[in-house]
Specification:
Length: about 425
């Protein structure tokens, strides 16, 4: 009996041992499921407002394409909103449209892969239409304000950036022989434009302060423009001269913009200059200037200019403005002469050829980067007299400009109201 019991016990031990070994083998063969790696999310949404009912339609449509191609290079989740009002329709929409593009940080936009070989039509079809609009003039305070408000309502990040693309003519409300267009031109041959003052008011409809604004439009790099924008953004990327129709190389700079840092904005501006330097080296007729402006320093700059005007009124009145570097002068638009001259050169002029150290220091604080494409046929930039920021100095043969200049916030803030011009009524 004892022997049989031991036999049974030994058999049970064998079975238990086999069972344990089997379980161990099964466990060791299981593939360990690791948690999926989460993708970081950019703390910035970029909004683009493109007024393309004009001869820039094709170029701005390409800008949408390159923005998306730049977006898809992100290694973070990121969001791009695009308001499009152009001659070309997107996704067969008759009127303006607001599009949403989201990348997952893994090479897709709205769930579809995008590569360098993806065509423009293919990319535009990926945009998710979040709102359509009736045919409207997009260069008005009312319309722009409403669209900006719509965009802001769709932003789910702490930070927000803005790109404005269209025609531009600095601070002016009237150009001799040219359409009035501080920014935008809704319709070729029309005066459907918006002043910079109204543009800033429209941007304020967002209820937020933009981390950066790119004014992808001609001659917006002036003190008058930057002063109007100081309450709606911390950083401006602007050009003192005309911007070539192709605009900015968005495919290369979107990641820099989403960083939301001074270094990122400067890198984007450097890439803009490098892009046009390369095109020039390849034999193309191009030009370019780009500045990164810290708008938080605009009040201090206005005070610095006011101090200079107060002690140099006679020099201002006797100044030959035509001798200064002209940012509004190019072979295609002679009517822009005198609209903007280099600020540093003007202050150096009234100080006998020397730029005061305190004024130079203030310029350094506000202009964090100023680059230009050298020796072009159309815009020759004198590097020794280039600071990257222009300003207007009233001249007697521009009465309409002088009248509008008085309406700018910069006019009083910078002390121009204290200069007694003999031709002034």
């Amino acid at each position: 009996m004892i022997k049989e019991y031991r036999t049974i016990l030994d058999e049970m031990k064998k079975r238990i041992l086999i069972a344990i070994c089997t379980l161990f083998c099964l466990a060791s063969c299981q593939v360990e499921e690791l948690p999926e790696e989460s993708t970081a999310r950019a703390d910035m949404t970029v909004c683009a407002y493109l007024v393309a009912d004009n001869n820039l339609d094709g170029f701005l449509l390409t800008n949408v394409e390159t923005m998306v191609k730049g977006l898809v290079q992100m290694t973070e989740e990121a969001h791009l909103l695009v308001y499009w009002d152009g001659y070309s329709s997107i996704q067969a929409q008759d009127g303006p449209v607001l599009l949403s593009f989201r990348t997952d940080g893994h090479g897709t936009v709205n769930g579809s892969p995008v590569t360098d070989l993806s065509g423009q039509d293919e990319i535009l079809q990926l945009g998710r239409i979040v709102k359509t609009y009736p045919e409207q003039n997009s260069a008005t305070l009312t319309v722009m304000g409403q669209v900006v408000e719509d965009m802001a309502g769709m932003v789910d990040t702490e930070r927000i950036g803005f790109i404005a693309g269209s025609h531009g003519s600095a601070w002016t409300g009237s150009i001799y022989g040219h359409p009035t267009r501080s920014f935008g031109q809704d319709g070729t041959g029309t005066d459907n434009t918006i002043t910079v003052e109204d543009m800033a008011a429209a941007l304020a409809h967002s209820g937020r302060k933009f981390d950066f604004i790119i004014l992808d439009a001609c001659m917006m790099g002036t003190a008058e423009v930057c002063y109007d924008m100081k309450d709606v953004t911390d950083w401006l990327l602007v050009s003192a001269v005309d911007i070539p129709a192709a605009g900015l190389p968005y495919q290369d700079i979107m990641g820099d913009l989403y960083k939301g840092t001074e270094d990122g904005y400067v890198l984007a501006a450097e890439k803009y200059i490098a892009y046009y330097e390369l095109l020039k080296a390849e034999g193309n007729r191009v030009w370019g200037t780009m500045s990164v402006v810290d708008c938080r320093e605009m009040d201090a700059l206005a005070v610095a200019v006011k101090e200079q005007l107060a002690v140099h009124e006679e020099d201002i009145l006797s100044m030959y403005v035509g001798s200064l570097q002209q940012y509004g002068l190019n072979p295609y638009a002679k009517g822009f002469i005198h609209v903007s001259v280099d600020m540093a050169e003007a202050i150096r002029y009234v100080n006998g050829g020397t730029l005061p150290e305190d004024f130079s220091a203030q310029l350094d604080r506000i202009i964090r980067y100023a680059g230009y494409v050298e020796n072009t046929d159309d815009f020759h930039i004198d590097g020794d007299n280039y600071c990257g920021l222009g300003m207007y100095i009233p001249v007697p043969d521009r009465p309409m400009w002088n009248s509008f200049f008085k309406r700018t916030a910069w006019y009083k803030a910078a002390g121009w109201d204290g200069i007694d011009f003999p031709w002034d009524e």
